[in-house]
Amino acid sequence: MQTEARVGVGVEGGGGQRVLNSAHGGVVVEGGGAGNVLAAHKQRMLHNQQSQIGTVSQLLAGGVAGAVSKTCTAPLARLTILFQVQGMHSDVATLRKASIWHEASRIISEEGFWAFWKGNLVTIAHRLPYSSISFYAFERYKHLLWLMLGVQNQGENVSADLCARLVGGGLAGITAASITYPLDLVRTRLAAQTNIIYYRGIWHALRTISREEGVWGLYKGLDATLLGVGPNLAISFSVYDTVKSYWQFQRPDDSPILVSLACGSLSGIASSTVTFPLDLVRRRMQLEGAGGRACVYKSGLFGTFRHIIRTEGLRGLYRGILPEYYKVVPSIGIVFMTYEKLKLLLSNYPAN
């Protein structure tokens, strides 16, 4: 499950002073002296000017960051999906022979090199709104929760700050996933196709699923998604936010790109490890009845869990975790790094 998150970043003020945006849009300047009043006023004016384009900047930067990340890691993402759904219609005994290199070789020989990017167009179509909504919603939810918890400045109350990040991340993920879910389902079905092509593209898949399975067929597996996306985004946002804040406090001179890459990768590994079984169940439920095939799991979310454990064991819930790990570090690193750079560029553009 893709895990994208974002943290508010300190801005270096004049004279080497550290200026932090508060939950109310104000500014706190560390250090004494009468000159700090003028510096704080200037920074407040700058913040107000930038906040006028903040929404557009966050939406655009988040969307582009998600699209770039998904395109770069599409081959590993498709391998993950193919491994996740192998147990649905295959003899479990044959799955022990599967390996990343064997499956990658099969794709190249049977489908061609560009098949690694099968479904990537719908992935981008899904990621642009998903990333934009999740990044923007996290900022809004976090600031609202800061107000509710009485937090004036980031870092002044560690427990309340962490709570706001956890809850805000979860709510942001649920909001984004609910709005964009049909595209996620279509992406899974397109990526899971191998030699037999049943869905010829995004619009054909949407029409075919709606006609054959009803409108609610576009929301198969939504319960598993919502159950997993909250913890996934909460862990991702909170780990990224917390580790980055601590890192910048301890080593303020380190490269922001390096910090974003490292912290984003750690957050992705943590969230993927915890929520991967739910992601696997989501993928299999999304493929229920696809292409006219018989349904395998007929007893809902928890029945699907029981069926997988009974037929494939606990290891079956982590089928495909290895390519997912290979994907997480570059994927999350790229999305955080791209988002931070784009937001910085877009925020500074009107001042040029």
TrEMBL record:
InterPro entries: MCP, MCP_dom_sf, MCP_transmembrane. Its main location: membrane. Solcar repeats lie at residues 53-144, 160-246, 255-345. The keyword Repeat applies. It is found in: Membrane. PROSITE patterns: SOLCAR. It is a multi-pass membrane protein. It comes from the Eukaryota. Keywords: Membrane, Repeat, Transmembrane, Transport. GO terms for cellular component: membrane. Pfam families: Mito_carr. Belongs to the mitochondrial carrier (TC 2.A.29) family. This is Uncharacterized protein.
